[in-house]
Amino acid sequence: MKLYTKSGDKGKTSIIGGRVDKDHLRVEAYGTIDELNSFIGKAVSELDASKFQDIIEDLTAIQHELFDGGGDLANVMKDRHYKLAEEPITVLENRIDLLSEEAPPLKRFILPGGAPAAATLHIARTVARRAERQTVSLMKEIEDVSPVVQKYLNRLSDYLFAAARVVNYRLSIRDIEYIRSGDVFK
Questions:
Q1: What does the DSSP 8-state code read for residue 6?
Q2: pTM of the predicted model, to two decimals?
Q3: Which of 86, 88, 121, 170 is deepest in the core (most CB within 10 A)?
Q4: Contact by Cβ (8 Å): 134, 149
């Protein structure tokens, strides 16, 4: 099998059940989810399993769930079954709560950064937010889009923030507070 098909050389791409322009909102949304998945893979490669096995396991599961969500957005078949369910959202919420308890309390906005893996998780967080915005735009244009994907991306960005903070904390790297921030977290 060749990696190239030449079928997209005229600006169209195949999705599950059809073809659309490569700049269609649907392609933008699931393409950004693919970009997000790549940054998460990069973060995993930067984590030491002896200190971060729990986060590595979370991120690996998330990568599979992102494939599910991207596939759901790429599916335009009349009789379709969505793969991404509500249960992973609950898992994310539970993990956010645990990670938030581990990191020091937060009062102000912080600068993204710290350890390489934490910085990558912050990048992934912002890409997750963009994917969510694109999914919302798609939902406004096309009514038959699974709302679970948007909800999952919303929760995922919170998870990625919590995970980035814990990575820095476990490595004894202090969060750098935004110097002009007032107390925003109480």
A1: S
A2: 0.94
A3: 121
A4: no
